[in-house]
């Protein structure tokens, strides 16, 4: 089958090659991929930024979520059958959606929303699960609480705004001028143009922050929270708590403890709880999100659709940071 692979870590473009169609075990399904989406996670893996957390053998097929049709099911698969239209985010050890087929555990997928095309469905799994796990599992967002969602016009941001509004929250977000109209349509209550305003000068006494930027943006976000608030980041530094939960061992736990000292100090100073989130595949949570999508309460937001042959270009476009919504690769 045709696929786009990475031969070594670094700022190297993906290249097309032929590899065998993957075999499946008794709990897996084989999906013919129709569409995949591009995520910042792909670039982080490509550049080797996650080597302390994830170990991959080269050559590596990139791609972290997809929509497609099942062509084979394992002997102990109970929830799916051949011909089912599905979408999902494969577990970290089984990524590879920039390819014509993928073997994926049945626990990592859900039936594709009936009202979405394959392109639209492929845009959902990673950003949808990231948003749900951040807002629901970590932040425990409740009705009428105030949450700041950074980069509201990005892939995660466009989904998170919609989900937070469904949870009854007051949502503030940061965007450039080009994204203001988009986040308005998604229901954002307060919009900060980060190129003209400092969000920490405007927003005060928030219950929660969902950070997708890391760095100075993350550090400054502590200032907008009330005492007892919570901040979750998918781009900040991992903590010792995260390393212990992941079973990364003594050395990495110590390393992350040292690296995240500044964030932990900020947490103590402001009486705020900081969590680093590395989202996990979860077909059951994805099925829950499917209900919101099929009811029309959450809409996919697409920026551009690339052909399979343009996969490397799609990844490079993602790295410009200009996308409003998700970037899709049409596999078939």
Query: CATH topology of the largest domain, what is it called?
Result: Quinone Oxidoreductase, Chain A, domain 1
The CATH class name of the largest domain reads: Alpha Beta
Look at the structure and name the CATH superfamily of the largest domain: Medium-chain alcohol dehydrogenases, catalytic domain
User: What proportion of the residues is helical, as a percent range?
Assistant: 25-40%
For the sheet with most strands, the description reads: 7 strands, mixed
Strand content: 25-35%
Oligomer: single chain
Q: How many E strands?
A: 16
Structural class: alpha/beta
Put the structure in a nutshell.
By secondary structure, the protein is an alpha/beta fold. The protein has helices spanning 40-46, 118-122, 125-138, 155-166, 180-186, 199-202, 215-221, 240-246, 250-259, 261-270, 283-294, 311-318; strands spanning 2-6, 15-18, 28-38, 60-61, 66-73, 85-88, 101-105, 109-111, 146-149, 170-175, 190-193, 206-211, 225-233, 273-276, 302-307, 326-330.
Salient structural properties:
Quinone Oxidoreductase, Chain A, domain 1; Rossmann fold; about 325 residues; six-stranded parallel beta sheet; alpha/beta
Task: Describe, in plain words, how this protein is organized in 3D.
- The model has no long low-confidence stretch (mean pLDDT 97).
- Helix 3 packs across helix 4 and helix 8 packs antiparallel against helix 9.
- The protein has 332 residues and is an alpha/beta fold.
- 48% of the residues are buried.
- The chain has twelve helices and 16 strands.
- The chain is globular.
- The longest helix is centred in the middle third of the chain and has 14 residues.
- The chain folds into two domains: 154 residues, Medium-chain alcohol dehydrogenases, catalytic domain (Quinone Oxidoreductase, Chain A, domain 1, Alpha-Beta Complex); 150 residues, NAD(P)-binding Rossmann-like Domain (Rossmann fold), CATH 3.40.50.720.
- Strands 3, 5, 6, 7, 8, 15 and 16 form a seven-stranded mixed β-sheet that branches. A six-stranded parallel β-sheet has the order 11-10-9-12-13-14, sandwiched between helices. Strands 2-1-4 form a three-stranded antiparallel β-sheet, with no helix packed on it.
């Amino acid at each position: 089958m045709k696929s786009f692979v990475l031969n070594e870590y670094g700022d190297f473009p993906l290249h097309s090659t032929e590899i065998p169609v993957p075999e499946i075990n008794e709990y897996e399904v084989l999906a013919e991929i129709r569409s995949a989406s591009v995520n910042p996670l792909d670039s982080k893996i490509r550049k080797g930024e996650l080597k302390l957390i994830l170990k991959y053998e080269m050559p590596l097929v990139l791609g972290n979520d997809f929509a497609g049709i099942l062509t084979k099911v394992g002997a102990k698969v109970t929830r799916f059958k051949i011909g089912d239209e599905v979408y999902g985010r494969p577990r970290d050890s089984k990524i590879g959606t920039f390819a014509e087929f993928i073997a994926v555990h049945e626990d990592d997928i859900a039936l594709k929303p009936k009202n979405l095309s394959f392109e639209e469905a492929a845009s959902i799994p990673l950003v949808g699960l990231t948003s749900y796990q951040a807002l629901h599992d970590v932040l425990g967002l409740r009705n009428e609480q105030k949450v700041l969602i950074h980069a509201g016009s990005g892939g995660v941001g466009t989904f998170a705004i919609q989900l937070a509004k469904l949870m009854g929250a007051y949502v503030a977000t940061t965007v450039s001028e080009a994204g203001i109209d988009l986040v308005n349509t998604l229901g954002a209550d307060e919009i900060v143009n980060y190129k003209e305003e400092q969000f920490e000068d405007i927003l005060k006494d928030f219950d929660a922050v969902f950070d997708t930027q890391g760095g100075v943006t993350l550090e400054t976000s502590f200032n907008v929270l009330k005492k007892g608030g919570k901040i979750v980041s998918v781009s900040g530094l991992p903590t010792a708590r995260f390393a212990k939960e992941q079973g990364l061992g003594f050395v990495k736990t110590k390393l992350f403890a040292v690296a995240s000292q500044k964030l932990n100090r900020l947490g103590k100073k402001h009486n705020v709880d900081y969590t680093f989130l590395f989202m996990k595949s979860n077909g059951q949570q994805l099925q829950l999100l499917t209900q919101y999508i099929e009811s029309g309460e959450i809409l996919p937001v697409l920026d551009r659709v690339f052909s399979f042959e343009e996969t490397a270009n799609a990844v490079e476009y993602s790295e410009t940071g200009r996308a409003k919504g998700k970037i899709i690769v049409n596999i078939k």
